[in-house]
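The records we work with from here on pair a chain with its fold. These numbers are not coordinates but entries in a learned vocabulary of local backbone shapes. To see the layout at work, look at the sequence and tokens printed below:
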Amino acid sequence: MKRNLLTRSLLVTAASTLAITLSACGSDDDASSESTSAATSSSEASEEAMPMASDEPFGPACAQVPTEGEGSVQGMADDPVATAASNNPLLSTLVQAVTAAGLGDTLNTTDDITVLAPANPAFEAVPEDALSALLADTDMLTAVLTHHVIPGRLGPDELAGTHETLNGDEVTIEGSGEEFSIAMDGTVVGMEASVICGNVQTANATVYVLDQVLKPAGM
């Protein structure tokens, strides 16, 4: 009889211990699940907050690029960069400057470059006498134009940062996603430059069209 009572007592104690243990495990699992869910939600929110880089041309001035022909986005992709620019009416003044400096062949034959290409309004913002003087000074013009060229093709996710240029100096680009700028002290007229049509592909270059002309070191 005593043995039966002792056995029942042990069984009751074991059952109680098991129930407490299972309850504790369940609480831990719930806490772990809530923690994981919160972490996932936080991660998803962070990803949504980060601007995404585009795989296609972007920017308001892209609407001014021809929709067909050699000057269109598709047409430019088949030609080296100087030739491609010569077919795009948005870049006609840049082409004039490249021709004056004798850099067309250099740009066309250099593999994998990134060109920060001032659009026509960027040159129009430079006072006429200063622009005429620049176009007449081959050495200075060459320094200005090669300051706009970065070795290597930079995608939108690589564009921000400080990069060495073909002029042997550096250019610093700020921003992310589809919004990039260069500080006002880095431009000829002292106004902040912005990418107005970016990630345009040519046969040997990735082009980012700017609304200002950049100023090389020492100018």
About this structure: The chain has nine helices and seven strands. Strands lie at 113-118, 149-151, 161-164, 170-176, 179-182, 193-201, 205-210. Confidence is low (pLDDT under 50) at residues 1-25, 38-43, 45-51.
